[in-house]
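Morning - S-adenosylmethionine inputs below, output right after.
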Amino acid sequence: MSDYNKNPSEHQARKRFGQNFLHDQNIIAKIIRAINPDKQQNIIEIGPGQGALSYPLLSELGHLDAIEIDRDLIHILNQQSPQYGELTIHEGDALKFDFKQLASSDNKCRVVGNLPYNISTPIIFHLLEFLDIIEDMHFMLQKEVVQRMSAEPGSKIYGRLSVMLQCYCEVDDLFDIPATAFNPPPKVISSLVRLVPRKKPLATLNNPQQFSRLVNRVFQQRRKTLRNTLKNFINTEQIEAVGISASARPETLSVSQFIELSNAIQTDIV
Ligand code: SAM
């Protein structure tokens, strides 16, 4: 049974939940400034932990929704949060959370979080399903992941994550956060990234599922030419008809070119 007298300093960080708690007040203030919360906003925090970001957010907002998987932390948050505002905690897995419960296209949400590193990319892909109800997102992630998100064509780290995110969002790598800002300190440097769903798409995308399967497939074999990887789905002439060289490697294509290529492929990629 849980110890209900626990206070945050007694909570043992759980590795399986990716718990690295922010404790550096200057960094916390810098993150809150970057988020720039405002009273009427519908903000949802993923993984409030011990409240490092939640409490300053609550003080600004008066109310905050948060999704937390660790029951012991929920107990601590429920005890401490009322002095800052009204914290509504949704107990469970953010990977399965239906964000439509809390937002709509008329009442968009802003999503924030110092994400558990082990599942940060799956959480972001889950959120891509809800972009029509999201105003923006601010996440602390491993610096290396943020670099891949914002990578440009031609770079070694430009890949599935870069194309999928940049297709749907503007990606802004804001600043680095040293490992010493966390307790326990992670092994890597972190960065704060801002993702803003595009109001206007880069190009019309006919079939988002096909696009996702295309991007997946070509980057699984990133050293192969498009002609080779896609030979069962589109021929050389059809690739070149949209102005893309069939002998190009995937990392040289811009996001708009991926959209055009996806639109040109008539056979379902499996
Ligand atoms: N926001 C706090 C901070 O900055 O100090 C905690 C951040 S800690 C890196 C990640 C938080 O996400 C932890 O509170 C952890 O319990 C929670 N968490 C881990 N996996 C989760 C999941 N699948 N769904 C929701 N929360 C999760």
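Note: The pocket of S-adenosylmethionine is lined by residues 17-22, 46-50, 52-53, 67-70, 73, 93-95, 114, 116, 119 (CB under 6 Å).

O.
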